[in-house]
Structure to design on (240 residues):
């Protein structure tokens, strides 16, 4: 156990010293402050690794605007701005402390991000009226029922949506959203899961990744307290 801890600490400190995300879709992007301080899963690039394929697919559609609701310290917003520098980027985050941290990290990239506070349905409607197609990333702790409600979702018929569903905050909201978007979108339901040793190969090389999997799993535990589901919703008219 001590041997494994020393190996992991060595590699994490080596990655941390570079100040950038180590792997995944945002490899090489400046790491957010929480990533450098304690959120190792973001620093290592394995944060929500079960969404990586969907993120790459969304990037492949080359949206001209990306909206991130519940942006926190900017992991997705700054990552997307780095991958899609020609697009417009808007982020919403209610907490002032998170916005301050976001701005400090965002200043390290040349792409401007329009950072705002609380997102309301009228904000999404106004943005969608200006931009017919786009990518919406949403993690809003249960507010998805209102933000993707009857007044909003008709405006998003041509938008890609990656949504974290908070069933315990808003019981039944997930099913309502599925019903609303099912006619216009192909919907993939993705479930959170624990990382396997292979997810750690970009952190600790073979064969140490296997022997260190216990330490890495504890350090990178997302603390979700159970399975969570995500909806990756792609407009049917974008699918060939």
């Amino acid at each position: 156990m001590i041997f494994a801890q020393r190996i992991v600490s060595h590699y994490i400190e080596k990655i941390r010293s570079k100040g950038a995300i180590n792997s995944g879709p945002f490899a090489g992007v400046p790491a957010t402050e929480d990533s450098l301080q304690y959120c190792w899963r973001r620093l290592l690039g394995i944060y929500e690794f079960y969404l990586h394929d969907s993120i790459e697919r969304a990037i492949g559609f080359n949206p001209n605007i990306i909206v991130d609701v519940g942006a926190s310290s900017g992991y997705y917003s700054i990552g997307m701005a780095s991958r899609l520098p020609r697009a417009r980027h808007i982020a919403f985050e209610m907490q002032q402390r998170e916005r301050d941290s976001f701005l400090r990290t965002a200043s390290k990239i040349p792409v401007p991000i329009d950072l705002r506070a609380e997102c309301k349905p009228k904000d999404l409607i106004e943005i969608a009226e200006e931009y017919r197609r786009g990518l919406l990333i949403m993690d809003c702790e249960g507010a998805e029922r209102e933000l993707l409600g009857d007044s909003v979702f008709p405006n998003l018929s041509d938008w890609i949506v990656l949504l974290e569903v908070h069933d315990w905050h808003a019981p039944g909201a997930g099913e309502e959203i599925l019903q609303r978007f099912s006619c216009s979108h192909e919907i993939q339901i993705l479930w959170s899961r624990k990382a396997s040793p292979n997810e750690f190969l970009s952190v600790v090389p073979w064969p140490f990744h296997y022997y260190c999997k216990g330490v890495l799993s504890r350090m990178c535990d997302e603390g979700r307290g159970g399975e969570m589901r995500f909806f990756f919703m792609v407009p049917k008219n974008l699918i060939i």
